[in-house]
């Protein structure tokens, strides 16, 4: 997958070229502030702080498609993430991950790493995709997979060049 073909707006409205994350191990997560899985922000931030100097980047993409659990605007989402979980990894503006208006990034992620029984849909908030330094999708993780349960896979990806 070629990250360099994507440009996405961060919560502050500035556009970010995902090419900046070339040669990094990238964990992409669709997030929400009012979800039962929202405490995973803490585990994601811990992984980010532990491994960012080795080349890990985590990209958060808020989404309101699952139970309307991300209704806030960009400013509210950013304040929530910072206040409640001290999030310092990049968080982008709210996007759709399913349907006709799904962000092209997510269309490609779902195509490269289908879900259970080959489904192209994202099941719920906090579905995660791990990409190696070449931009290849290594794995897709269910919302129930805790960040700490991915640590071994992340370490393996960081070791590979």
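-> sequence recovered:
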């Amino acid at each position: 997958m070629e990250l360099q073909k994507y440009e996405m707006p961060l919560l502050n409205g500035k556009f970010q070229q995902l090419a900046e994350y070339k040669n990094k191990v990238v964990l992409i997560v669709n997030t929400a502030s009012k979800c039962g899985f929202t405490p995973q922000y803490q585990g994601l931030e811990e992984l980010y702080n532990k491994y960012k100097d080795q080349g890990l980047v985590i990209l958060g993409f808020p989404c309101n498609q699952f139970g309307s659990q991300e209704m806030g605007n960009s400013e509210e989402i950013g304040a929530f993430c910072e206040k409640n979980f001290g999030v310092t990894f990049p968080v982008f503006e709210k996007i759709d991950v399913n349907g006709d208006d799904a962000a092209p990034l997510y269309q490609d992620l779902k195509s490269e790493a289908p879900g259970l029984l080959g489904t192209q849909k994202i099941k719920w908030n906090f579905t995660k995709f791990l990409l190696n330094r070449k931009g290849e999708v290594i794995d897709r993780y269910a919302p129930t997979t805790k960040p700490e349960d991915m640590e071994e896979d992340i370490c393996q990806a960081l070791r590979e060049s």
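The helical segments are 40-51, 74-85, 104-112, 151-159.
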